[in-house]
Amino acid sequence: MSKSLGNSPDPIDLMKLYGADGVRVGMLFCSPAGNDLPFDEGLCEQGRNFSNKIWNAFRLVKGWEVAAIEQPDSSKIAIEWFDSKLSKTITSINENYDKFRISEVLMSVYKLVWDDFCSSYLEMIKPAYQKPIDKTTLATTLAYFEELLKLLHPFMPFISEEIWSLLADRDVKNRLIVTPWPLANKVDTILLANEAIAAEVISGIRTIRNEKNIANKDQVALFVKLNEDTDKSFDSVITKLGNLSSLTYVDLKVDGALSFRVKSNEYYIPLAGAVNIKEEIATLKQELKYTQGFLNSVMKKLSNERFVSNAPEQVIDIERKKQADAEAKIKAIEEQISAIQ
Q: I want to staple 156 with a disulfide (CB 3.0 to 4.6 A). Which of 21, 147, 252, 315 is the partner?
């Protein structure tokens, strides 16, 4: 693009579409350090979506009713986790600022706000529908929000300053632009690792719900067979986000249940009451028959000497990968059928 050729985007038009903060973020996404990338208007749209995400998170938090109730265990551990996550990110951001890696700073802030705060932390502490939140959790969450606004301000000065003024009554002398930069606390790496494992467990539960059409509002039981020592501090979070009726540790494999693994530990969700067993077995058998037919077609190709000798090596590798994937899928389906029969 060139101004002399007249094919450069008009920043005013872009700001009308995506807002000033959205355009600022989009431009930085287009210009990572050491690289020349073509301008992509879609990144300005991504910046606008990021602004909307921040604003919606603010509306959510400010819309909660607060009450003098006991703080849930899930909120306690969520606060401990996010404090470490925030501190780790602040440390990384400061290092990148020292090296003038501005685009990397923005990406760290983006992930912290979108993934860690909005998608994870707020879900952990969010009260049940039409239920209040405890005072301690709300106060801590608002404090975290203020720290995030400080990190966002160099990139998104308008929305961050606006939300800063709405979070609390402040005079001109206490504007966001003149507040001190946030400081990093001690980082608990073990806690961060335990949360990552808990996130995999929650993902496994949701995958089974999705595959078996079990509504999120319907509670399920989870049985855990530990094959290695695992921290249980996030059990309350797993129970809440997985919408579990119970979380029980067992020594033996659970029959009549679907399972998944996280590391070497085994997790079982009984199907009784959650799905129609006969229909589920019929569906699995139909899927098994289809996969076996697919495997047979792949094996015919690989057993054809003419095909193997004439086909490019890359094509042969693809067919062998298809064979391995089909064999693994057949084994998994057979195990599912055996488990629920």
A: 21
pLDDT tens digits, residue range 192-249? 999 999 999 999 999 988 888 888 888 999 999 998 888 999 999 999 999 999 999 9
Pair 251, 227: CB distance under 8 Å = no
Provide the residue type at 282 as one letter. Answer: A
Tokens of 289: 């028959």
The pLDDT tens digits of the residues spanning 62-84 come to 999 999 999 999 999 999 999 99
pLDDT digits (tens, 9 = 90+) for 260-287: 889 889 999 987 666 667 777 788 889 8
Radius of gyration of the chain (CA): 26
Residue partners of 17: CB distance under 8 A and separation at least 6: 44, 45, 48
Q: Is the pTM here over 0.85, yes or no?
A: no
For the chain, helix, strand, coil in percent to 5 are 65, 10, 30
Ordered structural domains, the chain, with CATH: 11-178 (1.10.730.10), 201-270 (no CATH), 277-340 (1.10.287)
Residue spans of alpha helices (H) in 253-312: 277-302, 305-310
Cβ proximity of 50 and 22 under 8 Å? yes
Q: How many CB atoms lie within 10 A of CB 240?
A: 20
